[in-house]
């Protein structure tokens, strides 16, 4: 423990100072020796740290999405160089460099938060052992040892003995009940946060090993929290439970307002955006304009949900612009099918014109006119005589083919007038 304390001594003093400042504020409200004053000081420390880490969280989101986009290419490299690990690593680094992606960016919030976690752990451990640390003097140390959260001292652990818990002014049953409830809540919040990420904010069109890894972490992390949680003081459990709840709420906000392309969350978001834009006829917030701008820039690379969004705007007589705004459109616009094939449609479908109703006299005159045009001619000119009616040429040698006499008689016995041309197949 001394080795860890020495490693994080540069952050222990600032952490203890922040806790003391918050304790001074809450102590005037709830009393300096109460668990509310010290517990809320720890919660406020967490909120302050997480607010400072918001820029890193934004980088984490971008890095995670970039890694999801690169998963198909990474899989190809792994299959191509599966027998050459060195070449595989070189190609991976080349891919990261070309795309501007850093795999460690997704771990930045956790890495940045770790020093504060260990510093707080060391401060609370000093309170449990009766040692002053940082700016916490003897008076503050005595006040912190008296503080209880639902009957459990801040420095007590689930694994502490009954004698040690009694020295802190509590019972073993109270400590274990409170710590067990907090460990369950901590593990449940971690599980829900990871499950929310996997079920709503993952591109379902691409199946990659990254998704399997995330699914595995969804079950591994809660178990890890449950195992290590029994060795954490109550104050550290308050810290970790607060940061888990913050992460869960922060992720819910991101999924609701800026979901991953191709995910179920994006489908729900674009459906809400379609109703909003068609109702107001424009995009109002900067976030909505950024989403529409990104969808327009994709062109034919849009996914199913994005094509549906563009088509819905088109049917409503609206057109998304390249700057993220939406304008009314009366000219012909392009509608994309599910296969991504663009088809041109007008701003409004032309109405089908019904034929005018004619009177009885108009119908009779039209029928008479049509009957007059369909009467056959009484004679045929030479040019109108069908070729099949002309006599066949006589064969050389004066002979005649069998059946020609019968044919001649049939032709001579035909009545005068227009004759129906015979089909060439009946010659």
Fold and architecture overview:
Strands 1-2 form a two-stranded antiparallel ribbon. A two-stranded antiparallel sheet has the order 3-4. It has a two-stranded antiparallel sheet with strand order 5-6. The protein is elongated, with a radius of gyration of 43 Å. It has 427 residues and is mainly alpha-helical. Helix 9 (172-200) runs antiparallel to helix 10. It is 62% helix and 4% strand.
Class derived from helix and strand content: mainly alpha
Radius of gyration: 43 Å
User: Judging from the principal axes of the Cα atoms, what is the shape?
Assistant: elongated
| Overall residue-averaged pLDDT value | 76
> Segments where pLDDT lies below 50 for 5+ residues?
346-351, 375-392, 394-413
Widest sheet, order of strands = 1-2
Helix content: 55-70%
Give the helix tally. Answer: 16
What is the terminal-to-terminal distance? Answer: 114 Å
Succession of helices and strands: HHHHHHHEEHHHHHHHEEEEHH
Largest sheet: number of strands, sense, barrel closure: 2 strands, antiparallel
- Beta-strand residue fraction: under 5%
Number of strands: 6
């Amino acid at each position: 423990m001394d080795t860890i304390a020495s490693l994080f001594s540069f952050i222990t003093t600032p952490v203890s100072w922040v806790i003391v400042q918050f304790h001074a504020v809450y102590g005037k409200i709830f009393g300096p020796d109460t668990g509310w004053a010290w517990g809320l000081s720890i919660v406020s420390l967490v909120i302050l740290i997480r607010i400072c880490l918001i820029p890193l969280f934004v980088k984490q989101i971008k890095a995670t999405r970039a890694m999801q986009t690169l998963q198909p290419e990474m899989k190809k490299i792994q299959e191509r160089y599966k027998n050459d690990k060195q070449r595989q690593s070189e190609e991976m680094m080349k891919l990261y460099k070309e795309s501007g992606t850093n795999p460690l960016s997704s771990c930045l919030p956790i890495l940045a938060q770790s020093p504060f976690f260990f510093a707080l752990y060391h401060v609370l451990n000093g309170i449990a052992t009766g040692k002053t640390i940082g700016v916490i003097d003897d008076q503050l140390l005595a006040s912190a040892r008296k503080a209880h959260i639902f009957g459990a001292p801040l420095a007590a652990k689930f694994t502490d003995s009954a004698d040690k818990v009694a020295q802190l002014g509590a019972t073993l049953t109270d400590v274990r009940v409170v710590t067990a409830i907090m460990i369950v809540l901590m593990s449940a919040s971690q599980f829900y946060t990871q499950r929310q990420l996997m079920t709503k904010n993952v591109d379902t069109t691409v199946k990659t090993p990254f998704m399997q890894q995330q699914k595995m972490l969804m079950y591994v992390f809660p178990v890890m929290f449950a195992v290590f949680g029994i060795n954490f003081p109550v104050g550290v459990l308050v810290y970790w439970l607060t940061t888990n709840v913050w992460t869960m709420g922060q992720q819910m906000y991101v999924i609701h307002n800026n979901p991953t392309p191709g995910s179920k969350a994006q489908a729900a978001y674009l459906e809400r955006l379609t109703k909003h834009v068609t109702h107001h006829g424009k995009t109002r917030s900067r976030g909505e304009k950024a989403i529409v701008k990104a969808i327009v820039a994709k062109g034919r690379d849009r996914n199913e949900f994005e094509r549906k969004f563009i088509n819905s705007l088109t049917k409503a007589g609206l057109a998304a612009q390249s700057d993220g705004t939406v304008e009314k459109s009366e000219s012909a616009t392009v509608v994309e099918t599910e296969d991504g094939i663009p088809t041109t449609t007008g701003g409004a479908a032309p109405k089908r014109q019904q034929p005018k109703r004619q009177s009885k006299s108009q119908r009779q005159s039209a029928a008479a006119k049509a009957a007059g045009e369909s009467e056959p001619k009484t004679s045929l000119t030479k040019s109108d005589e069908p070729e099949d009616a002309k006599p066949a040429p006589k064969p050389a040698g004066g002979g005649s083919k069998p059946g020609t006499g019968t044919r001649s008689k049939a032709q001579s016995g035909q009545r005068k007038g227009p004759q129906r041309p015979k089909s060439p197949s009946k010659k």
